Amino acid sequence: MRRRKPLGFDAAAHERHHGWRSLLLRLAVCGGVTAFLWWSSGWAGLLVSLMLWAHVFAADLAALGGWAWRGLRRAAFLPVQGRFYQFKGYRIRVLDDELLSQRWLALDDLGAALGAPVPASSLRRRWPEALHDERDGLYVLDDAVLAWLRERRDERAGRLALWLEREVWYPARGRKAGTQKGAPPGAPP
Predict the structure, then answer these.
(1) Helix 43-77 with 11-41: angle, nearest 10 deg
(2) Same structural domain for residues 45 and 105?
(3) Exposed site from 71, 106, 135, 137, fewest CB < 10 Å?
């Protein structure tokens, strides 16, 4: 059975067609005025018609420039989308786990943000599955980092733990992490 088009007014189709009709009408009017001014005044008429073209198409050119700028920014930031985080001016590399909803943080970047080296040997003793070697360094699981940071008593570690929980830990687990009663599975204590 064939579906029939719904009766009534289709606003989206109207807006699409209205935009194209408006553009074609402006092109036709500006072209006609330019041809008339060229025929009647020569080069002086062309200069006047250039002002008309600039006035009529200024908003469209600005919108096109904004669209191109947003597209270029999206293309430029695509390689680091979702992997670039910053804590108080320090870059922290983050890798998403493909299978589980967890993230891995670069140990060197955490040490730089904390202002002191993060001891990989003690993390490996307490959480042997929480460390992972990559080409660009050693990565540690976000749960282990949160637990280790909460054991430290300095102010910078507390701020880093709070930032890590808000910006890295909760977004990786989705909305359920903040809305379930009690602590979600795998939540830091």
Answers:
(1) 140
(2) no
(3) 135
Whose CA is closest to 95, among 123, 124, 129, 137?
A: 137
Residue 69: predicted pLDDT:
94
23-69: per-residue pLDDT in tens? 889 999 999 999 998 889 888 888 888 888 989 988 888 999 999 99
Q: How many domains does the chain have?
A: 2
For residue 128, the 8-state DSSP code is: G
112 occurs within a structural domain: yes
Bridge partner residues of 138 (DSSP): 133
The number of helix segments (H) and strand segments (E) in the chain equals 8, 5
Task: Look at residues 80, 77, 131, 136 and name the one whose alpha carbon lies nearest to residue 104.
Answer: 131
Q: What is the DSSP letter of 99?
A: S
Answer yes or no: is 60 within a domain. Answer: no
Containing structural domain, residue 18: 12-54
The segments of the chain whose pLDDT lies below 50 read 177-180
Q: Are 30 and 52 in contact (CB under 8 A)?
A: yes
At 166, list the tokens: 């808000």
Of 96, 83, 98, 177, which is closest to residue 142 (Cα–Cα)? 96
Whether pTM > 0.70 for this model: the answer is no
Rg (CA), the chain: 29
